[in-house]
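Researcher: Structure for this, please.
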Amino acid sequence: MAVALAALWIGCAQSNSVAGDCSDEVRRAKSVARKINEEWPLRSADYVTELVEEVVWRLAAVEQKRRWEVVVFRSRTPEAYSIGDGRIYVSDGSVRACETESELASILAHEMSHQLLGHFCEEGTGSRGRERSVGSVSLRFDGARELAADRFALDLIARGGYDPRAALSIIRRVQRGTSRGHLGESARATRLEGLLSRYAPRVGFETKQFAETRQRLQAERGLGD
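Model: Predicted structure, token format:
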């Protein structure tokens, strides 16, 4: 999902290659990050953050080199957002909701794909998609961008050694539990089913670190809503 400050559009869809003027992406991303860091309940750089970073680094190893910065925030709802400049915010509820590391990889690969596709290169002028606000941060959903990110992410997941079908399993589980956020969009499962038809079944890469982290996180008390 593309994240922007209210009244600022920063998720402009391009193609599989970055196009347009990206010179202002860093400034816009820093502005959004400042708002999120001030307003959202962030975790410290703890064991959950370490796991999420490890999955991102594994996915990043098969893509173009760039800097990635991952921040975990507290929320029972599975949520993840890209803001540009290699910055990704993911809830610890996402880790709790995932039953496999491949599912977590699919969430992160989708957010990485928004950035690798150049969705933050131009401010743009349109007002497409649904919007909701979290504090002073505006969250915008555009179907075309979400589809492009899903399509790109499946290849990223597969090349990273994970199971692409995990993208569908986590979406279905989230939809059964909540309709909030882009992970709960009803149309995504249908779109993913079509995209996954070209991938053969496979066993995804899994680590002991994922299982241990998820078990430890599920035992935590006081996880924010």
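Researcher: Any notable elements?
Model: Residues 2-218 form one domain. The first helix runs from residue 25 to 39.
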